[in-house]
From TrEMBL, chain A:
Span of domain ABC transmembrane type-2: 26-263
Entry's localization field: Cell membrane; Membrane
Highest taxon above the source species: Bacteria
PANTHER family in alphabetical order: NODULATION PROTEIN J (PTHR43229:SF2)
Membrane topology: Multi-pass membrane protein
Entry protein name: Transport permease protein
Membrane-crossing residue ranges in chain numbering: 27-48, 60-82, 116-134, 140-163, 170-190, 238-258
Family per record: Belongs to the ABC-2 integral membrane protein family.
Organism taxonomic ancestry: Bacteria, Bacillati, Actinomycetota, Actinomycetes, Pseudonocardiales
Keywords carried by this UniProt record: Antibiotic resistance, Cell membrane, Membrane, Transmembrane, Transmembrane helix, Transport
Pfam family, one: ABC2_membrane
Family annotation (InterPro entries): ABC2_TM, ABC2_TM_bact-type, ABC_2_transport, Nod_factor_ABC_transporter
TrEMBL record, chain B:
Keyword Ribonucleoprotein: no
Name this protein carries in UniProt: ABC-2 type transport system ATP-binding protein
GO molecular function: ATP binding; ATP hydrolysis activity
Keyword presence, Nucleotide-binding: yes
Taxonomic placement: Bacteria, Bacillati, Actinomycetota, Actinomycetes, Pseudonocardiales
Family of this protein: Belongs to the ABC transporter superfamily. Drug exporter-1 (DrugE1) (TC 3.A.1.105) family.
Length: 266, 321
């Protein structure tokens, strides 16, 4: 009963956040503009210089773009919370008999919905530049599911950072330090095999690599001439991705909740 | 009559800054109490403790018969808070804001909507109900915020500086709204740094400074504490000022305060208008040319100055949040 109530409270807060997407459509336009530009940049500018044996680079590219897009989308959680913290609305929430967790649950849930919307737009963009799904609809759906699940877990990490820094401007800079290496020292845009030894190890164990490869395999965007690097997470990318989701949630849900309680008690 | 708020020895420290320093306060049910003090006096901190937003380091507080620490969850169903910063969402319409608050009070879907419409009508926001709050004026936002505090018909209502930052016209409008509101018998704790506001709205006033209540009573009682009426007059020259001071010494019930730069005299007196007549007669007999003369009741500004030794708005400290 208490759990149901908490979920209902979370849904009310999520609805509040989603109304913002409707009222400020520029937000969605600009959160998709950047990834679309990335697709064009890599498909038509850099793509010609990157060779993936046995397949077209654009087929390789899109799973990486999806991973990047949902990671960037997950940062909205942090900036949204940081923005809320600067306003009186958090005090109002805290004075209401609602579940303590509702602000965080609502925020991460609405950002998940936002990410689902963005990924649909990105898939359409991919189809336009020549990306195709070579697997069954169920596998394709599983790919989207893994991307979104990972983004959801990641948004709890962003929530924690957003509550830690308490200012949307600072968050945007702080999250970049985190987002940049995790997105690019990976197999998102290039094959990790081509990286120098040190970076290659980082890339192979980077959670984002597992997620990207899982999506790549489930969409059927792999080359028959390529075998995944011989490390466990990339040999079992789906399992590894789900494992990372659990690890992220176990670490960052309590941390974010702790930080929320601490931050509002000032 | 039972007490809606009882606070005993509340202490809250932020590092070396002491926001609350043993605050004691009692608010009887059904009354309006004004918590009056300058910026940084601890008003907001006190409200945050009473509304469960903040835990005090020491001391205890009961609101509506419930312990703010141990029974916080239950207490939140019984209180309404409207803060210094209008706690409304800019991207939501007025209706959506109130509906959301209703849902979070667990009123249910139908009741939340009904209550939102009711309050919008009551606060004269019907026309703006379905427009995003972004386009609201400062006064409209405050009214909506206040409406938000009333959604669940709270037994104890907290208004933290409800008119700070409003223009004079909106402030008057807000006062009307608050006066109307408490006719229904809600207990209200109102914090303000405007003495005029406390005087007009509150049944009883607690003056707070440096995290402690330094005086309590009705506005009249506080004024009496500083002394009764004063005769104030201005003359043209400093020679006349000393003549006037000598002439009126017999009427004074306390020390006469002479300001020789402004040629202004303040004489504490009792006896109302007959004293005024007598003063004019005596001054006339001495041929003192009086530019201006009047009998004044002390304002809460005087009360504050007398109690704290500094004027209310003159505070170097920042507001404690």
């Amino acid at each position: 009963m208490k759990l149901l109530q908490a979920l209902a409270d979370g849904a009310v807060v999520a609805k509040r956040n989603l109304i913002k997407i409707k009222r400020v459509p520029d937000l969605l336009v600009f959160s998709t503009a950047a990834p679309i530009m990335f697709v064009l940049l890599f498909a038509y500018v850099f793509g010609g210089s990157i060779q993936i044996p046995g397949m077209d680079y654009r087929e390789f590219l899109m799973a990486g773009i999806f991973a990047q897009t949902v990671l960037f989308g997950a940062t909205i959680t942090g900036s949204g919370l940081a923005e809320d913290m600067t306003k009186g609305i958090i005090d109002r929430f805290r004075s209401l008999p609602m579940a303590r967790s509702a602000v965080l649950v609502g925020r991460t849930t609405s950002d998940l919905v936002n990410n689902a919307l963005v990924i649909v737009i990105m898939m359409i963009t991919g189809l336009i530049v020549g990306w195709r799904i070579h697997s069954s609809p169920l596998e394709a759906l599983a790919a989207v599911g893994i991307l979104l699940l990972f983004a959801y877990a990641f948004s709890w990490a962003m929530a924690w950072i957003g509550l830690l820094v308490r200012s949307p401007e600072v968050f945007n800079n702080a999250s970049f330090i985190f987002i940049f290496p995790i997105t690019y020292i990976a197999n998102t845009f290039v094959q990790s095999e081509n990286l120098p030894a040190g970076l290659r190890h980082v890339a192979e164990w980077n959670p984002v690599s597992a997620v990207t490869l899982a999506a790549r395999e489930l969409f059927g965007n792999t080359s028959p001439l390529q075998t995944p690097p011989d490390v466990w997470p990339l040999q079992h990318p789906v399992l590894a991705s789900l494992g990372w989701v659990v690890v992220f949630l176990l670490i960052f849900v309590p941390l974010a909740n702790y930080q929320y309680k601490r931050a509002v008690a000032r | 009559m039972t007490d809606a708020i009882v606070a005993e020895g509340l202490v809250k420290r932020y590092g070396s800054v002491v926001a609350l320093d043993g605050l004691d306060l009692t608010v009887p049910e059904g009354t309006i109490t004004g918590l009056l003090g300058p910026n940084g006096a601890g008003k907001t901190t006190a409200v945050r403790v009473f509304t469960t937003l903040l835990e005090a380091d020491e001391g205890s507080a009961r609101v509506a018969g419930l312990d703010v620490r141990k029974q916080a969850d239950e207490l939140r169903t019984k209180i309404g808070l409207s803060g210094q910063y209008a706690a409304v969402d800019d991207n939501l319409t007025g209706f959506e804001n109130l509906d959301m608050v209703g849902r979070l009070y667990h009123l249910g879907r139908a009741r939340s909507r009904e209550r939102a419409r009711e309050l919008l009508a009551r606060f004269d926001l019907e026309d703006a109900a379905d427009r995003p709050v972004k386009g609201y004026s400062g006064g409209m936002r405050r009214r909506l915020d206040l409406a938000g505090a009333l959604v669940a018909k709270p037994t104890v209502l907290f208004l933290d500086e409800p008119t700070t930052g409003l223009d004079p016209r909106s402030r008057l409008g807000m006062w009307d709204v608050i006066e109307e509101l408490v006719k229904g018998g809600t207990t209200l704790l109102l914090t303000t740094q405007y003495l005029e506001e406390a005087d007009r709205l509150a049944d009883q006033i607690a003056v707070i400074d440096h995290g402690r209540v330094i005086a309590e009573g009705t506005a009249d009682q506080l004024k009496d504490q500083v002394g009764g009426e004063r005769l104030e007059l201005s003359v043209a020259t400093s020679a006349e000022l000393s003549t006037a001071a000598g002439t009126l010494a017999g009427l004074a019930v306390g020390q006469i305060d002479a300001d020789d730069r402004q040629n202004h005299l303040t004489v504490p007196v009792t006896g109302g208008s007959s004293v005024l007549m007598e003063a004019i007669r005596r001054l006339d007999a001495e041929s003192v040319k009086v530019l201006d003369i009047g009998l004044r009741r002390p304002t809460l500004d005087d009360v504050f100055l007398a109690l704290t030794g500094h004027v209310a708005d003159d505070s170097a400290q920042g507001e404690q949040k």
